[in-house]
Structure formats: C-alpha cells, structure tokens
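Carboxyl-terminal processing protease structure dump, as promised
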Amino acid sequence: MSQKVKIAGWIAAGALAGALATVSLQTVARGTLSPLPLEELQQLAAVFGMIKSDYVEPVDEKKLITDAISGMVASLDPHSQYFDKKSYKEFREGTTGRFVGVGIEITQEDGVIRIVSPIEGSPADRAGLKPGDLITKIDDTAVKGLSMNDAVKRMRGEPGTKVLLTIFRKDESRTFPVTITREEIRTQSVKGKVIEPGYAWVRLSQFQERTVDDFVAKIEDIYKREPNLKGLVLDLRNDPGGLLDAAVAVSAAFLPANVTVVSTNGQIDESKSIFKARPEDYMRRRAADPLRRLPAALKTVPLVVLVNEGSASASEIVAGALQDHKRATIMGSQTFGKGSVQTVRPLGPDTALKITTARYYTPSGKTIQAKGIVPDIMIDDTAEGSPYAVLRTREADLQKHLVVGSEPEKPNPALEREREEALKKLEEESRKPASQRRPPEFGSDKDFPLLQGLAQLKGQPVKVSKTLVERKDEPKTE
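structure tokens r here:
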C-alpha cells in the first residue's frame, strides 16, 4: 500500500473511530458494554482510503460514508433505516399527516393516475376535482409511464407554488386544465359513518399524530347521529401502522382503564415497557386527554374489528389487545406480522437512524412478529373467495426478518404452488377492462367483509371462509 493510501486510511480510521466512540459512549449509557472492533474499523478505513485515492474517477466522500451507513443499517432487518436529509423530511411528514401538495388520494390505472377522492377542503377539492377524474399530465410532463411516486413528487412542492394538472373526466368525455396552488395538507387517517340505523363503521388508514383527535371527533359525530348505537365495525384493513401512542389510545377507548394494551422487550432498559389503557401511556404529545370526550357507551358497544394481510404494526397492537381482552370479534385474514419496535434517533439537525429496538407482545404475552394476529373468524375478501391473498407479502416473506427461535426457516412448497396458481388467475383478470377489475371501496354497500361484520353484530349467519387458514411459517421457540 502506498504511503499516501496509508495516511488517508489512518486519518479515516481516526475519524471513524472518534465518531463511533461517541456512539459507544451512548451505548454504554444505555447499559450495553461492548468494545469497538478496531481491526474491522481499520479495514473499513483502509477501503475508504483506497477508493478515495485509486478509484477510476473522483468520488464524493460524504456519499461514500452515507452509503456505507445505509448498507450497514439495511443489513439488520427490513425495518431499520438510515434517513438522509430528504428521507428524514418525508418520514416526519408521514407521521404528522401533513405535507404540501394539492390534496388528493390517488391510485394508478392503466398507466395514468386516477383520483380516488379529493381531501375535503383541500385546493383540489376547491378546484372541483372529482373521484374518478384521470390526471394525464402534470405541468408539461405526461403521466403515462411515470411511477406513482414520481407523480406524487411532481404534485408536491413549496406552499404557494402552482401546478398545472390536465384532467380527463370520463363521464363528460372532456379534457381540461386545472391550475392549483399548493398548500399544507392534513391527510385524513380516520373515516366513518352510520351505515344503517343502529350500526356504524369507522376506518383507520394509519396511526398519525392527529389520528386520536380525529378518531374521537368521528365517534362523537356518530353518536350524535345515532345515540343508541347497537354495534360498531372498526376497520383496520391495509392499515400499515404508525405511532405507538396512537395505537394505545385507540385501544384504551374501548378497554377498561389500566388493563395492559401491549408490552415491549429489547436489549436496553428503555425498550422494556408495558403500555396500559391509561392517559400517561398515550398522552406524550398532548396536554389534555382527548378520550375524556368519548361517550361512556363506547366501552361496551358490541365491536367487530376487520383486518387483513395489510394490517401491520400499530393496527396489530389494537387488534391483539381487543382480542386478548375479549372486547371485540376479530374478522378477516391473518395480519402482516410486524411485531418489532423502531426507535428514531436523530444524528443531527436533518438526519436520523430508525433502528429496531424491541419486539411487541400482546397482553397475553404472544409475540406478533412474523405471525401476526389470527382472526377469530376468517373472512374472504369477496363472496367468491380470496384468490389473491396468497400473493400479498407478509413479514415472514421479507428477507432478514426477525425470527422467534433459532431454527432456520423452511420453504413451503404448498404455499409456492398456491402463489403460482394465484398468479395465473391474476394474469387472466388483468385482461379484463379496468372497470371490471376494480374492487369495491371499503365502506361501500358492496364491501363483503364489512357486510359479514354487520351480520356478526346482528347475530345473523356469517359466510366464513372455506379456504383461508392460519399461516404457521414461523418456527416455535424451544
């Protein structure tokens, strides 16, 4: 190795060792004593020096280090992540439920963007955009060929800036431009309505900072419209999770005071916790307890919770707590199985590390990890069955997911055959017109699982699935 490379390597080693010594001190403070692997750090520094001096063209030092950090964190599990400036900003927007944009919920259809719904009171709503409108261009860029993420990024921007959308409205057979001024949008993570006299439906699409307040407001509105509520369906399908304290609060809304909602266990002391149905465990971001406004009848109203393979993390905490305390009947399909806790630790003013620090356990002590919540009653997606459920990815399908025991995972040939058959059916389905492929919207009068939830609340016969079975991919603890 040349003297130049040696010097570069040792300087880098000194800088890395100094930085990591700081991290080590923080680790010691949390009660974990482990010496730094100096030989490996010297090797890392030597590689850094060689790349810096010998690579075919100049490299960005900061990018090299950032990529090294990202790779190190990504090697742990699917949910640990290094946030650079841009991704950290996007992450914080996701948890607050606030972003700058035009205010529409969208989906992709045949290469263009279809508006599912304008957010009430948003610039898009005020501009007269309607559900079903197709966006064909964003400013001068054709949407055809853009990914959904690219389309979203182009519609977002700074407050007060304008974006030109070209809209095709099918029912009027016309294309027209709409100029919309971007502003801060608050996403709606809570929806709900009285479905029929005596019965209501409340859907949580995510657990954000405003979810609890919006949930309380929605329940208050439902009870004003229907004071003698006979049954409630809490819909957590496709809810990917979010904030832990929001999940504890929603659980506490239905449970007796002070019962256990969820417990966590990890390597450091702060990851060993028990969260109960009490204000001090869910009021970390607020001055007053919003649950005090809820009607007392909510504690005893007959309750059904709908879940599916897309219900993960915080939504699994709620379903698990209500199931273990026998407060609700859980209906649907086995949930995603994300039973790990991620803690976000800032590394500076605009970067952070999201790292898995603990596992979740339901009140009875069952792990959620790679198993999920098994419903009390298995319900199909449609009256014809759940032909594509096997294609949905669950935690147990993710590479490097945390396992419960030390046994290696074994491939499941039967599951692979089911997936192949489902893929063939999906290919056939894709040849049909888009209007025939679109599933019923959640909360509609054609929502099959919701109709079964209502039947359960009324004591009527429920169409139990004949095909869905519990998945037991995860090895048992010895």
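Residues 3-93 form one domain.
lmk if u need the other ones
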